[in-house]
Here is the input.
Amino acid sequence: MRIVKRARVAAAALGVVAGTLVASAGPGTSVSQAAAPADGATTAASRIYGVEIVKEAGGVGDLQTQSVRCPQRKVPIGGGAEASFGYTPWGHDIQLVSSAPLLEGGQPVGWRASALKFVSPGMTLTTYAICAYEPSGYQIAQSPVTPSPKNTLTTLSCPAGKVALGGGGEAIGADSWLSKSYPTPVSGTAQPTQWALGTAGWDTTTAVVHAVCADPVHALTVTRFNTASESPYGGLLKCPAGTVVAGGGASANGPAASLISSRPAKAAETGSRDGWWAQGSDDLQSSNIDLYVMCTEPV
Here is the structure.
């Protein structure tokens, strides 16, 4: 049965699933075109300057941390990661364990990630940092180590009046992994003020959640799209025309879901516009995933 399922799943390279799973931010797909300040703040929203994406790729072992640093004078406003090993994964072949800001001496300097696999081929991990000049009100919030039972959600709020530009976290525990990492709430016109993290695993899991916080951002849009298919499931959610990706996330849904990838994609890679690429997997024959992309005007 496992071999048959693999034969039915197309190779999961970026864009292969574009015919059914790629969604563009636009009418009917956006649940938040957010330009309003959070928590009723009346101050003018600020802009994000100099957004660029840097990445680091290479072979890693289980739970080995890979990191990438932002260019000098820039800070991480978001990030992501993708694990792979040469063929289409299924079930719990491979999964992300951490994807979070990289701190050195308490200062945010980039992004870090780790992954875990339960099969023999070597594993490649690619870690992405979305970097920019430090936005107004910028700070990194971090939760303590928190119990994170299977199929529960842990959220971390930014300080009052600030919004969540990005975030992530790590699953802590034997054979545990990430299933969800995304901005919330995503509704109406309010910019998200929290970061949500979900974990899964065979044993009791704890987690640490990180939120990248800043003052409300001018012309920041947040779009969510749900898609379902056989494992692995996911796709590419594109930014509106004329904007660049500033962050994003994903929620792989299912009783034992895992994230394989949740990371930014530039226009040169997608063939059209910036966006957010994510894939998840589960033991079930089919499941679904929520994709999130955060976009802003380039300055």
Residues 82 and 259 are 9 Å apart (CA to CA). The domain at 2-296 is CATH 2.60.120.690 (Jelly Rolls). The chain has one domain: 2-296. The mean pLDDT is 84.
